[in-house]
## 1
Amino acid sequence: MGNVFISIGLTLDGFLAPEGMTMDDPGHRNWGAKWGALMAWIINQQYFRDKLKLGPGGETGPVNDRVRQTFERTGANIMGKRMFDQGEASWPEEAPFHTPVYVLTHTKRDPWVRPGGTTFHFIPDGPERALALAREAAGDRDVRISGGAKVIQQYLNLGVIDEMEIALAPVFFGAGRRLFENLDEPAPQFRIESVLNGSFATHLRYVRL
Amino acid sequence: MGNVFISIGLTLDGFLAPEGMTMDDPGHRNWGAKWGALMAWIINQQYFRDKLKLGPGGETGPVNDRVRQTFERTGANIMGKRMFDQGEASWPEEAPFHTPVYVLTHTKRDPWVRPGGTTFHFIPDGPERALALAREAAGDRDVRISGGAKVIQQYLNLGVIDEMEIALAPVFFGAGRRLFENLDEPAPQFRIESVLNGSFATHLRYVRL
């Protein structure tokens, strides 16, 4: 059975998304520039540029290898309804997952098949059921809890997250969606597994104790 | 003229002190254990053990060198009244600063001279005046903004912090005093200067852009 992991960009003040980040108002509170500063590290990786068709070039070192591994080891994704809704409005026709994606929701909906191997399944039966389905679909590969923050918090509180990859960027958002809050006590325990240095982020990898 | 810097331990969820941390109630919300987990990395450094008379042993590698440099380059400290009050009740006779310390306060008080080179000066004229006095006292050496969180935030908002040393520990406090909040927009900008790996914390060093 594979691992359950998160892989997320985080600001120094603990946010994974800036306040006011909605596709219908790209200028609101300057969220576009803030988001760009947080994502600068990955926009600059060759594998990511290639996958998202952002054009040629990009770094090919250890950070790029990490990005490739993260994509390649993922056999299924889980995400919240809010993240899905935002993505539905902005992903390209070929959604960038290329695996089954389990969307936590309260409303039933038929699976939505996209070109390139991404199929969205809508799961109204809670996070544990979604994880069981994702594990089955992933087989030997890993399950990525894609987000948002509240979904990651649910799985942290269930004690099932084996690994956390965090790209910590020297950026302040001031407000937005915080990754690490609403955790039950005693909180889950992790140890530092490895650290990769980059110019725009520090790539921290933690594994569960 | 020297630099102005902070050097602080931080949890993954962004706290520098756990909720309920008061000397008169050491069991409150398990704060002692939480604090111990955050401070594990430094308790284990030879220089720190020696300076605080915690007994022999400890690591002597690059993290220990960093701890020594941090102490040795500091020519003056600045702290808030709350941090001073807690310390006044718990520091040993020989307070662990060995420099002039400028305490931001609203009440006048004569300087308080401790054995070992620490003299506390009480400054009711605001953070900029305290910094001017600290710079003068430090000469070529650096000024450390010791804490707490609100004092560091004041100096970040003044735009005078040149460097941030952050020991990021894989620990969750859930609640407590948050380091990075109440920052004005646009927020101060930093770049990653270096990263040192340790078992109990990742030692991030940022410098102002």
## 2
Amino acid sequence: MNPQLDEAIRQRGKAFFASIRGESPSIFNKGFWTGKVMDWAMQNEAFKVQLFRFVDVLPYLTTGDNLSRHIEEYFAGGEAGDIPAVLKWGAEKSGLFGGVAAKLMGKAIRSNIEGMARQFIVGETTREAVKNLGKIRKDGFAFTVDLLGEATVSEGESDAYRDGYLEVLAAIEAEQAHWKPFGAGTDDLDWGSAPRVNASIKPSALYSQARPMDFEGSVEGILARMRPVYRKIMAMGGALCIDMEQLKYKAITIELFKRLRADPEFRDYPHLSIVLQAYLRETEHDLRELISWGRAEGLPFGLRLVKGAYWDSETVVAKQMGWPTPTWTRKPESDMAHEKLARLILENSDLVYFQCASHNIRTIANVMETAAELGVPDNRFEFQALYGMAEPVRKGLLKVAGRVRLYCPYGELLPGMAYLVRRLLENTANESFLRQSFAEGAAEDLLLENPAATLARELAAHPPRPKAEPATLDGLTAFRDEPLADFTIAELRTAFPAAIAALHHKAGQTLPLVIGGQALETADRLPTVNPADPTEILAQVCQAGMAEVNQALAAAEAAFADWRDKTPRQRADVLLKAAAIARRDIVALAATQVLEVGKQWDQAYNDVGEAIDFLEYYAREAVRLGTPRRMGREPGEKNHLFYEPKGVCAVIAPWNFPLAIACGMTAAAIVTGNTVVFKPSGLAALVGYGLVTIFQEAGLPAGVFNFCPGRGSVIGDYLIEHPAVSTIAFTGSMEVGLRIQEKAAKVHPGQRYCKRVIAEMGGKNALIIDDDADLDEAIIGVVYSAFGFQGQKCSACSRVIVVDAMYERFVARLTEACASLAIGPAEDPTNAMGPVVDAAGQAKVREYAALARQEGDVLLERQIEGPGFYAPLVVVAGIRPEHRLAQEEVFGPILSVMRAASFDEAIAWANSTPFALTGGVYSRSPKHLDKARREFRVGNLYLNRNCVGAMVGRQPFGGSKMSGVGSKSGGPDYLLQFMEPRVVTENTIRRGFTPIDADDEWVE
Amino acid sequence: MNPQLDEAIRQRGKAFFASIRGESPSIFNKGFWTGKVMDWAMQNEAFKVQLFRFVDVLPYLTTGDNLSRHIEEYFAGGEAGDIPAVLKWGAEKSGLFGGVAAKLMGKAIRSNIEGMARQFIVGETTREAVKNLGKIRKDGFAFTVDLLGEATVSEGESDAYRDGYLEVLAAIEAEQAHWKPFGAGTDDLDWGSAPRVNASIKPSALYSQARPMDFEGSVEGILARMRPVYRKIMAMGGALCIDMEQLKYKAITIELFKRLRADPEFRDYPHLSIVLQAYLRETEHDLRELISWGRAEGLPFGLRLVKGAYWDSETVVAKQMGWPTPTWTRKPESDMAHEKLARLILENSDLVYFQCASHNIRTIANVMETAAELGVPDNRFEFQALYGMAEPVRKGLLKVAGRVRLYCPYGELLPGMAYLVRRLLENTANESFLRQSFAEGAAEDLLLENPAATLARELAAHPPRPKAEPATLDGLTAFRDEPLADFTIAELRTAFPAAIAALHHKAGQTLPLVIGGQALETADRLPTVNPADPTEILAQVCQAGMAEVNQALAAAEAAFADWRDKTPRQRADVLLKAAAIARRDIVALAATQVLEVGKQWDQAYNDVGEAIDFLEYYAREAVRLGTPRRMGREPGEKNHLFYEPKGVCAVIAPWNFPLAIACGMTAAAIVTGNTVVFKPSGLAALVGYGLVTIFQEAGLPAGVFNFCPGRGSVIGDYLIEHPAVSTIAFTGSMEVGLRIQEKAAKVHPGQRYCKRVIAEMGGKNALIIDDDADLDEAIIGVVYSAFGFQGQKCSACSRVIVVDAMYERFVARLTEACASLAIGPAEDPTNAMGPVVDAAGQAKVREYAALARQEGDVLLERQIEGPGFYAPLVVVAGIRPEHRLAQEEVFGPILSVMRAASFDEAIAWANSTPFALTGGVYSRSPKHLDKARREFRVGNLYLNRNCVGAMVGRQPFGGSKMSGVGSKSGGPDYLLQFMEPRVVTENTIRRGFTPIDADDEWVE
């Protein structure tokens, strides 16, 4: 930046500060409760966490008891066991807390917090909002109105959201005439350029099914409800700004903005804006692309540039998903980006009407001075601030620039609280300009410093830690999960249809057995078909008989000694190669699942990702466990504990996670030095065959992995009872699992080992909805857990247990949400649900659907016709613990809804089945969450999230009771099951002479 | 010390040094191979280890091939893969290595090392020895002759050792007349006081069965062979010095010295000496006690004071056994002790004839000056040095003091090598006076410094590390094994007979069931008897029927929830209390085993020790595993892996480790939060009842541990198949174990968990004797492993596989050793072996004894008559892998001897049974040891030691194949078997707000 400009900016900033000297945002005013509490929160991170969480849950606390209980749970955890004094502050004065009972105090706290929320909201009703908008205009500020909304989880809710806009617009329309335009008003425009009516709208709320994977569906789904709103605005001569939300909606939002702007109906009406977020690394690219598009189309547009309000969640989500951090990670970087982007916009002010939304005086001053330097006319840019925040800044802005628009949310307090949390975060973040300026009184020079200089200072003081991964054992980097599917990437969205088309093309191939590295065709064949169109035979699969099982076992036995005698690292390297191959071929491998078992794109992709995770994780685990551990430190004695393989492992795989689970069991067996006879599910033999090609290319020696599909009725028991088998790794139904266990327990002549059976079996998993659950999240979590991949997961939610007080609200929204799901072939990413895997599954689900009608009250049953194996989606209420629908695994899209009198009863019911696999709780009560942690006894318990999709290494997976025997897959104990421990003890004393080693425990 | 004396000592020392200026012990002479090699060894610790180990094995390398192979294995391990140049040094000059083949080089190295050994030995034959003793006297030195000997492992060998002394004395007798006494000889005494003939003798070699536990038997056993030797010496007018060996023989040696000295036959003959070691902390006490005794008895005696030659092994052994370090740990402390003890002796010079044995000039000077100060007459003390060592010192001594005696070992090179290793260690130790003086040329001032000052300097430079144990989880100290039985402690030796007597007194008591904390008597009773005298009924044991099993299971189920909900630390604390109780009652608990199952004192004591170990170890393990582990470090997500109990565990215990194994299985189950129904073996119900009293006193809640003895035929299957049982922990025979496994695999109605069976079963364990095995150790190890507790251990050695070249030598010594064992009631510590546990065991052993006569050549069969269940001790040779005696577990004192053509064949045979529990190898070939490590596939492999007595935490115990299923007891994976893993995942993001924790992986 040229030094003159920088100096001008700083001078401008100083003048700005001078003009507001002595003023402070009301939220920091320590004379009031809010200011006191904010002050305490900024000093005390733990209190801040509790406070913001409490604000979040507050609207759900509809009874006094509930409120007192939560205040106690959130704030009385300390040693004193007492509520922090700051929360009670002012009680004596106000009389609210005098000799106060808990309930009274609760009411006071609620009232104070609701007061905080109201400060940021222009009104709770349309009437109040419109009245206040008028007042705002009287104060000289323009507005943009925004309707607060819960996340929309159903199409009904999206309709309501659209209707809410239409309602407020109608109300404003009636008032509009009374509002005089600001400045040299021509054409009823403020400042000669901006419509008096301005609305901002969140696109994702307009289509409950919007998601990156269904890009086209999402764009059109949103537009369908946005058009009437925009039409109305156009009719009123107003302006619309399409808000930018989380990154996952960015591409969709840009696309729908373009379509709406270029729509013949609206193309001649210029008052449409979009928002870009300076904190995203991609934004410069997006901006340039938008400008080019606008120029090419000849379409001027408005652009609000913000710093971005989702930094915390964007960075956290990216970390969780394994994606690169999408944002700048240091605050000055975002500030720098804003300055750079602002210049770019101002340079294109003929095309782009600039809306600078920031409370940062340096940022504002930069825009003013840059506009001045570039000679941008005043009516080509305006400033925006949030209603209720940064009052001194907006006041200063009004003085200096004149053109200030306030962003004015209105709506109910419930969604208002979510908005409040975001605003509190913004005000109290360590790096907040407002906090630094007004709460901490930082030096103006620093506040007005060029962010590039600030960054340089910060980097000097806290240099970034070196990026090199800490090496773990044997030079391997630490394990990381494969990134989850990211359908914001356009290339991935287009790769799927191409891969699926290629598979259709190949349909009908013959799959041989592969034994000892040799393909072997048998006469007995079984087709594997597309469940969405069973006439499409994907492959004819050769079936093994007993003779072939013998051959496979012999090949595995023959390969054993050499494989066993490789080092753990050598075996691990084969897995790592296999992982790299699967990573390269991930879309093709996922597409196979889409066609063969009807799995949705994202879940198919993540299944392959999980297979890669197993390869990567077990490779490292094998090296870790393969390193002998010294036991004891006594001198003269060396004890080493280590593990070695047993021999031949039979891997019997399911069809529902057809690559991940097959690969996990197989990888565990082979990386520990065993050899494998692999029997894939007949319903997923084509996916299973993928392992053959992956391992072959990875250089696994012939005979270590033998592909041996066959009919369970013909070869199942034979394989299990065979004396050559030492370990059986099985995933499937409880019935088959228990049979395997029983058969394998008998020792047959010639058998070397007592067989180890590792069996992952069924589940009857419950999600509990507490009376303070965040319903926006709970509905989405339940729907995904219950109906993702048609409920055909051992982890799937098949019971939802709702605490009485929440029941009606939850069930109503849930039913609507389920009714909103698109059902159809998994090939089409629009569909959230597809056919079940085969006719037997279909028949079973239909039986349970009939049972649902007997045992309970069916709230929803969606029958899908078509050539595929479609099974009804059923939501059935009135289920009690003794019902079969509360006890038996269905393995399909049937969800039992149970109404529990209390959280304790919900836990008891949740535990009341023969299974103990997964489960979950949506609750914001710390005590209830703790109780669940202790007493909701399932293998994998999830708090405040869905109960499926366990990640290798992070959520080792598996249950107990009749859900499984064995240690959790993807966890630190899993590989032990495939090995025998050995200890070698050496006496190192010879003739009294004992070399003493560094790690010996020695005298003194 | 008074400064004048100290100054006089230093002046005396300086004069001493001056008198030998320029001289050096031959071993450090770098002009020769030995000096060169010593120099290299002192610079290179790894080479030193290999060199000394090679010297140790050298006499066993009787073929050129074997020799070359070992040279290669010991020395060619480095990167160069070549033999170190130093070993080849001088080859060109000597012509020995010119263009040399491996065999030739081997011969040269052997010849050089044998030369080293000869330097320290006065002769290999009696004739040579006597001749050289004469030469020594010609040089002005007196001598004491010592017969080198292998460890004696049988009474025949002890006889031979005694005879060796008689032979050399006879030979000396013939020469004695030609030797003129030194000094003013009167009565043919040297220096007017010392007999010309002087012999030193190692007492332990005179009785092959000597051991601290059998104190009286050891004293008398040794005296029986020492008396004729001393008688002969007295007849010759000579003197005898009883050498002091390892600490374990000290009390025995002092006692036998006193008895011999006070024996009416010898009481009037004063020329008997004993040795004390200054490095032992106890020595001052021993010395004062001996002086009091001498004064009380009016018996003057001789006393050789040495620093002590077993420092390395005493400290190492103490660490391994868990005993306090018996020695001073810093060299100057031993030097200080020598000075203090020397003054004490010299103060009593009227009673004690002082023999100062040291090569340390400071030590010598101290004795001279202290004697002068005290006015001790010259003929009341003499100096001693080792033949072949420290030549300058002995020369200087001769000049200064005149009275110098050389300690002269003679005998074959094979035992000579062991002696050589000790001498090399002494010469090359970092703190060796000789090394510092002559190899490193340390300053005389430092060498002559008062050791108290040296110590102060050392402590200042290297202060002792703080003694505080590093705290582990939850404030618990690190686990340590209970100290093993130490029968050098007189109180322990006397406690056993008292405890046993008390038990005899209580015989006939009734043992009730204990269910839910209540004693319950049933009508059906079974006696438990003393196997050494089956007419002695120790107790009448109430037997449970199915009704009582149901009661016990109900009590266990009722107690479960409360116990489960305790914290791991609370449960661990109960175990730690139980451990303290068992520790307090250890002798009484051990005595019960002596009587009820016929276990020898030491093994019974160590069995209780192991029970304590299990309590202490599992307590800590439970806390470790009870601490939830965070999985993954992604922000916004908390995944914790932890474990929880399942319910009721059936513990079915064996009689052979009646407390340890019962306690281990029980402790594991309860500390993890399960409750237990415990069925002890009917043969060890009294021992099993010990757990009831221990746990009751420790405060275990009622119902957590239920004592439920019963007939297997009545309640066995019922208990195993019961749906209330979730885990079965069993130790016993393969037949029963496999039956349990099969029965438990079937799921019965009402059953919550697939039952986990943890079964430790049988073994058919082999020890391999390689062609270079150290036989002294191998024989002792095999005998103890095969016949300790009558072979009734699953870990017992029941096959010894001997490599052909070693066969004859090994088998001859083994058979003699077995013939030397005393057999009789375990009450009497003389007996190394007792009766088997019952008539059935007796009958089974007899059957296998008969089979031995059919399948092999019985080398030894010892039939013991008596009222007890004595079974024959059998050593049978000619057993081949296909014989039943090579395949079937006998569980009694029958040892099969197998002759293998090679080490490889030995390994193959060792692996050829259905079992894989323990095994061992005696070998000094690094390659063979490595091969065994890899390919001798048993659960617990022991190199160069016996194969029994695995220590908790150090040697986690358990096998595979038909020896067991489950993880090793006493190891880090064991407790996992009693628990189910759970993972709780919490999504900590609320409204995008995510508290970031310190251990989160965060941006940048």
